[in-house]
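Loading example: each entry is read as two labelled lines plus one structure line.
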Amino acid sequence: MDNEFLQTILLTMKLAGSTTVVLIVIGLPFAYWLAYTKIRLKPLIEALVSMPMVLPPSVIGYYMLVLYSPRNGFGGWLDRVFNVRLAFSFEGVLIASVIFSLPFMVQPLHNGLRALPKSLLEASYTLGKSKTITFFRVLLPNIKPSVITAVALTFSHSIGEFGVVLMVGGNMPGETRVASIAIYDEVQALNFQAANRYALILFLVSLALLTTIYSVNKKYDSWKMI
Amino acid sequence: MENDLIVIDIQKKMLTASGPMDLIVQTKILPGNLVAIFGESGAGKTTLLRILAGLTNPDKGIIRFGNSVWFDSAKRINMPPQQRNISLMFQDYALFPNMTIEKNIRFAQPESNQTEVNELLNLFGLLELRKRKPAGLSGGQKQRGALARALARKPKLLLLDEPLSALDAEMRNALQNQIAKIHRLLGITIFLVSHDLNEVFKLASHVISLENGVVRQTGTPEEVFSDNRISGKVQITGQVARIEKQDTINVVTVISGGTQIIKVIAFDSDLENLKVGDPVMVFSKAFNPIICKLQ
């Protein structure tokens, strides 16, 4: 029982941690591109990124299942070439979770970059610095509050995920059974004590993360740009 | 010297508050000049500066700096700002908030050299403030920091976008002297955007006068501003606050903008129709301020 509890909590953290790491790697360049691009399709791309915030998780979960199915193009290709089936696997849940949490990473970063005076970027360019150096030494350090917000929101949102994981991953101990699903499962089995423990842990972790965000924001409130 | 000639021949469609406007500039500048880009706001001064920096692209034309072609629409050449070996000092200074003033300067150096950082800090009176971040500096200090950073890059061309507009008169004067000194010391070409005639006369050796996007005149400040049309624009409007008679002359006190008090000497003939409360214009022709009634 205790082992199972620990396994579930660790799996929950592993999923949230992996989701956050993957999203930092994808989200930073993507938010940078989105903040400075002039392509016409930008509103559509922004809308697509935000879709997970308004769609029921079951919709995302359903589409992911369709995508993963070996009967369809992508899933079939994965099955044939790599002998991989993503449905009801940790990797499958991770991909779904990355897509589901995308707006929570991209939006704060995008807003942070947009709020920076454009002259900072331009000044760095005129001082002969490449786009990469400008991004890592000028832009990124100046949106630190946004980065912290994005990371904490993504992590806590991934912890709180229920619908997508249930659709895509089901409830397989050690593979796809995360805390939010375990709570549901334990309540169904009238095992309230176990449900209580999961709920308390999720509550405390989320509270700690959100408190971090708000204290960081407060610290930077008095922080003037120029 | 001839090889370093700066050739500008560009066109750019601009959207301004008063509608679309074409910026058309054709000029050649000898290296080593301190060039003032002069004109009213919205005349295209800053856009021209940004085009030189490579931050804004002209629709067509050529920009050459000596032998290197910075922009040539016919040959599809557009050198990015990084390769132009310039420094642009922005109106908002654009000091990096995450770095101390010293690190801002060091960031701009092509190769790290602490001795030069110290020299620049010293030259601009920033030695004591070296560990401060821009948020902890006054307007004038940020300004000096931005200028020091611009020089740390060792540019061939220094571009200054209304560098002194936000400063009070005393600070402005001190920094004008500093810019003049840098220009003498380093001999680099400087372009300075300004709408302050005083500043242009004090600093510039060459003027590009822009009006609605078109070059009205180029030349030395004396050549450009001998035209009455523009000297008539150096004018202050206000209201007559007091008229005092002193012997054969009269002293008229004019209040402008609610804070500025100007005393002007006027003869009896000037005072016909003039009474306290009248709106007036004080303008300068050569060196005597002359007063006249506004309709």
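The first helix of chain A runs from residue 2 to 36.
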